[in-house]
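S.,

As promised, the zinc ion run. Input:
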Amino acid sequence: MHHCDSACGCSKMSRRGFLAVAGAAAVAAALPRGLAQEAAPGQTSAGTDARGAPTHPLIDMHAHQVPDFMRGQNPKGGAGGRTEKEFVAHQKAVNAVASVILGGNDYDFEFMKAEPNKYIRFASAQRAGGDRGLVVEKALKGGAKGIGEHRWEGDIPFTWRMLDMARDFKVPILFHFEEVLFPAAVFSEFYKVIEKYPTVTFIGHGIDWWGAIDKNYHKSQGGRPRGLINPGGLTDQWLSRYPNLHCDMSAGSGNNALLRDPYRAKEFIIRHQDRMLFGSDCNCSAGGTPTCWTAIKLMALNYLELSPEVQQKLYISNAAKLFGFKLS
Ligand SMILES: [Zn+2]
Ligand SMILES: [Zn+2]
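Predicted complex:
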């Protein structure tokens, strides 16, 4: 059962409706009133790339955070080590005006209660064990607006259950591709899944996703392939072929792709500008260089000198449309 109302933007129909009215200006106008004040000094409005301004306002579509009441329950630390207050400070430091909390499920976050328009949650059940499908379903029924992130684990019942839920709840699904971890989940075969679910909104990210912007990529190159990009890899081809496929720029893998060959990365971004999404995947509490993935990505993107129109799309408007942020 699909519980979203027509304003949530998650169904094909309402997204089309949104697209019809959503030029960059319309999206900017739909941003909450507070955003103008939150823009970095020197930026007069969202989409204005004033030289010298620290960063462009952005929607971070790949954030990880656990609620304070669950801190310490994650033995591996990671995002569990950062308080909600530190998360909010981090997002402010990188000029995130809205964020998607992956695996936020149906949790009560204090920052969400305070500013509900700035956050949405995705449903996930990453760790094996128990009925993972039920966890995702419960979170979707509890208001999660997407599914992810999940490793692409290949042909297992949970995979199809998640995809069926993405279709039936009409929510996007975010996959992390890393074949060395799940050898049965062959990246080059994934297009068959996209073709099997033509109404589902897919988002890709991770090691193989970014490696495969190069047509000579092989997983044996490891997580951080170097050298100039040979355009026309699978990721590039699929983004051209499938309009329901979107590109999440988050993490070290995204940074690596931007930095190894900025000129061809720029061409890739321009080619797929309507489906590029800024994401951090950063769990640091600093929000600054040299350790913050988000800050590094922002510098790498600055270096590309993308047009204001393309920046507006990848930082703000593509995500606003796709996730139906109620930014007004
Ligand atoms: Zn992540
Ligand atoms: Zn960071």
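The radius of gyration is 18 Å. The longest helix spans residues 308-323.

- D.
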